[in-house]
Amino acid sequence: MEHKPEKAKKSKTTSMGTPKNFLVPIMLLHLRDWNSHGYELMEKIMQFGIESVDQGNFYRLLRQLEKDALVTSEWDVTSGGPAKRIYSITEAGEQYLEMWAGSLSHYQKMLDQFFNLYNPFFSPFRSASQTKNDDD
Fold first, then answer.
1. What is the CATH number of domain 23-119?
2. Three-class SS string for 11-62?
3. How far apart are CA 101 and CA 108, in angstroms?
4. Beta-bridge partners for 23
């Protein structure tokens, strides 16, 4: 019988605090400025740059945010057709968003330092057209 090496047990790695669910602060950010139906919110998030949003998970996440008192919803029966929920951010949601903004600001500083060390001449914010113009 051939002896196979045991797979190394997954050790607990120290989390560096990397954002695990970036969708939540993006949702709250959009709700901060306007109340929205779920579908409208999903469209805005995709316009923001999230390439694909699983509709089922999205609505489960909205319901969880409501359970956590970060958002609230009301039924909109004023428009024609079936009633739709309108979501709004709560004060607790605003505080949670502020916490994320502070955390992301810290990550931005670390990313800037990383790119400065990685390549001092690399600027992640320069567009390809700027680079091409610099080469002319």
1. 1.10.10.10
2. CCCCCCCCCCCCHHHHHHHHHHHCCEEHHHHHHHHHHHCCCCCCHHHHHHHH
3. 10
4. none
What is the reported pTM? 0.69
State how far the alpha carbon of 127 is from the alpha carbons of 4, 18, 96, 97, 113, in Å: 50, 26, 32, 29, 19
Rounded distance, CA 90 to CA 29, Å? 12
Average pLDDT over residues 113-125: 79
- Decide: 69 and 91 in contact? Cβ < 8 Å: no
What element of type H or E holds 78?
A: none
Report the SS3 class of residue 118. helix
List Cα–Cα distances, 76 to 36, 55, 60, 96, in angstroms: 10, 20, 19, 26
pLDDT tens for 75-97 read 998 888 889 999 999 999 999 99
Supply 60's token pair.
């489960």
Other beta carbons less than 10 A from residue 112's beta carbon = 13
